[in-house]
Amino acid sequence: MKFILANWMDGVGDARQELVFIGMNMDESALRARLASALLTDEEMAEGPGEWRHYPDPLAPWFAA
């Protein structure tokens, strides 16, 4: 419980996230760069979900119509 509370943020709750990649011959620096490029800037974060909805979605649709 102490661990969860140490990462608690009002408004979002448990704000800790973790990704684990397991594999051989992975390019760690390239992987880190790709992940970092997906992060919002401080300005984008301040815009909030109302604006995020208008951002282009590079992923294919998740649900079939």
TrEMBL record:
InterPro entries: CobW-like_C, Zn_Chap_cDPG_Synth. Residues 8-39 form the CobW C-terminal domain. It holds the Pfam family CobW_C. Coiled coil: none annotated. This is Cobalamin synthesis protein cobW C-terminal domain. It comes from Raoultella planticola (Klebsiella planticola). The lineage of its organism: Bacteria, Pseudomonadati, Pseudomonadota, Gammaproteobacteria, Enterobacterales.
